[in-house]
Design goal:
Number of helices: 6
CATH topology: Rossmann fold
Number of domains: 1
CATH architecture: 3-Layer(aba) Sandwich
Radius of gyration: 16 Å
Oligomer: single chain
Number of strands: 5
Distance between the termini: 35 Å
Order of helices and strands: EHEEHEHHEHH
Strand content: 5-15%
Largest sheet: 5 strands, parallel
CATH superfamily: Aspartate/ornithine carbamoyltransferase
């Protein structure tokens, strides 16, 4: 909202490990409630089978997804939650679903890059993308701290009553 104004009418792609992500589901619901169009992108093995029932579309081609969107929210591959291999290697994942500066610069428009953190630099995004002007990742971290502090304050004040 700070970068693009209204959320309504914006196109947001969530890229990566949708299957193991709490961020993906909460973002899908919150973005749709605010009028955004949401698409997911990642290896088929990391896309839940029910995802289209949530009103999102699936795009397996990262370039097409990035050309479509206004905002790309990149998700971390959560190896610690995986009991089997969902893709052949981290290197292959990075080649097919990782965003680097060359890919961003080759798009016909500028998009906003988000990431809930922590980042696997060089896997889902490279350092030059994370640290670029298109990235709002540090703003996300700062805002997330403020939100968590506010929630804890409100919850703690209810306990005292």
């Amino acid at each position: 909202r700070e970068r693009l104004g209204e959320v309504a009418g914006k196109k947001v792609v969530i890229v990566g490990d949708i299957l193991h992500s709490r961020v993906a589901l909460s973002n899908i619901y919150a973005l749709q409630m605010q009028g955004a169009e949401v698409k997911v992108c990642g290896p088929k093995t990391l896309i839940p089978k029910y995802i289209e029932s949530l009103g999102v579309t699936v795009e397996s081609n990262l370039r097409k997804a990035l050309e479509w969107c206004d905002v790309a929210n990149m998700l971390r591959v959560q190896n610690e939650r995986m009991d089997v291999n969902y893709f052949p290697s981290t290197r292959e994942y990075a080649q097919q679903y990782g965003v680097d500066k060359a890919l961003l610069d080759s798009l016909n428009k500028e998009i906003v890059i988000m990431h809930p953190g922590p980042i696997n630099r060089g896997v889902e995004i490279t350092s030059d993308v994370a640290d670029s002007q298109q990235s709002v990742i540090l703003d996300q971290v700062e805002n997330g701290v403020a939100i968590r502090m506010a929630v804890i304050y409100l919850l703690a004040s209810k306990i005292k009553q």
